[in-house]
Amino acid sequence: MSRSLRRGAIAATAIAFSLASLAACGAGNNAETLEVKPDNAAISVGDIKIQNALVITQPDLKSKGPAVISATVFNSGSSDQTLDSITVNGTGKKAEITPAKGDAKTKAKGPLTIPAGESVVIGGKGNASAVLPSSRDSVKDGNAQRITFSFSKTGDVRLQAFVVPAESYFTEWGPTEVPKAPETQPSAPADASGEPDAGASDKPAGENGGQAEGHEGEAGADPSAPADGGQASAEAGTGTQH
Fold first, then answer.
1. Is residue 169 within 8 Å of residue 54, measured between CB atoms?
2. 151 alpha-carbon distance from chain centroid
3. Phi and psi at residue 120, in whole multiples of 5°?
4. What is the rounded average pLDDT of the residues 73-86?
5. pLDDT tens for residues 100-144?
């Protein structure tokens, strides 16, 4: 593991506990909550405060799936604001923001509303989400990446956020869309039309032809032999599929 990855992992571990506590409290913008100053990605601009910002990537380094942005956004103002966009610098892409289920103030495809005197958690089960299209070339695990949050009244708020994979503490906060390995297609079954049937004994071919010659009576006395051969072939064909 590189030094940058180790530094990122150590710092990000501390962030994980802060994420869990903030999501659990779901509190408004009270003084006690706002006095917490964790050693992680946090910033205050005007009425807006952002804490615990992270970029969480796919657990598989070879995956081309999306990443997600996780953060807690506070609005200490007397009026609602909207989070219009989130951009990770260097990717040239904006995250797709989706409100939490039951968010009556935010339209399904509109900007995310941050109510006055309240906070909104982005990322994690049941919360709002911000999904960034695949950007593996620009977003590297262990790095500190600059993120820009754009608000309706406060404007652009920028901060550095760690990039971590969706592993260990961050599994429940990571992308829900994790690409699966392609399924192996079963091999085509043997063509039954090419197998001998019970009526094929009077037209022997290949090795069976030599044995059948001069023994027509014996072949007629044991009609089950071709059927057994066909069954064995079918079983062999079935075995290749496993």
1. no
2. 28
3. -130, 130
4. 97
5. 988 888 887 779 999 999 999 999 999 999 999 876 777 888 889
Instruction: State the pTM of this model.
Output: 0.58
Angle made by CA atoms 104, 77, 157, in degrees to the nearest 5: 90
Residue type, position 153, single letter:
K
Distance of CA 59 to the CA centre of its chain: 8
The contacts of residue 194 (CB under 8 Å, 6+ apart) are none
Provide the 10 A C-beta neighbour count for residue 112. 25
CB 57 within 8 A of CB 163: yes
What fold characterizes domain 3-173?
Answer: Immunoglobulin-like (2.60.40)
Percentages helix, strand, coil for the chain (3-state, rounded to 5) are 30, 25, 45
Cα-trace Rg, the chain: 32
Q: CATH 2.60.40.1890: which residues of the chain? A: 3-173
Q: Report residue 209 as tokens.
A: 């032809």
List of residues 6+ apart from 199 with CB closer than 8 A = none
